[in-house]
Specification:
The chain has a domain at about 40-128. About 80% of the residues lie in helices and about 0% in strands. The protein has six helices and no strands. Helix 2 (about 25-70) runs antiparallel to helix 3 (about 75-95). The radius of gyration is 30 Å and the shape is rod-shaped.
């Protein structure tokens, strides 16, 4: 056997062993990755998405209370309270806006909140 044939044969066996070694336990590794992905998605849902929508819901409820108070008694104090409550709602919307899929998408949440530019005709119609 010449030197070149020996090197090729050894290389072939080495590559074959490396390939076979890489194929073992791949099912276990894939299962571990799947479980890790499930845990990661559950973590994101429970610790990021749901709290951001809860914060938006709470801020929106506070804004609704301030808007109702202003509508019942339109004075400077109630207007200031209403204006001050708008910023937390906008910030909460920015956090929740990232997650516009699933129920938020099917309920068309984006078209109901934070519409820009404002429809001045609709606003004037609501005022009248």
């Amino acid at each position: 056997m010449n030197k070149r044939t020996l090197i090729l044969t050894l290389s072939f066996f080495t590559l074959t062993l490396i390939f076979l070694e890489s194929c073992t336990d791949s099912g276990t590794e894939a299962d571990t990755e799947f479980v890790d992905r499930q845990e990661q998605l559950a973590n994101v849902g429970n610790n990021i998405i749901i709290p951001s929508y809860r914060a938006l819901q709470e801020a929106s409820a506070s804004l609704d209370v301030a808007a109702t108070a202003f509508a019942d008694d339109p004075n400077e104090s109630n207007l200031t309270a209403l204006q001050n409550q708008l910023k937390p709602v906008r910030l909460a919307w920015q956090d929740a806006n990232l997650f516009q899929f699933g129920p938020a998408e099917s309920l068309v949440l984006r078209s109901a909140l934070n519409t820009f530019p404002a429809n001045t005709d609709q606003i004037n119609s609501n005022i009248e």
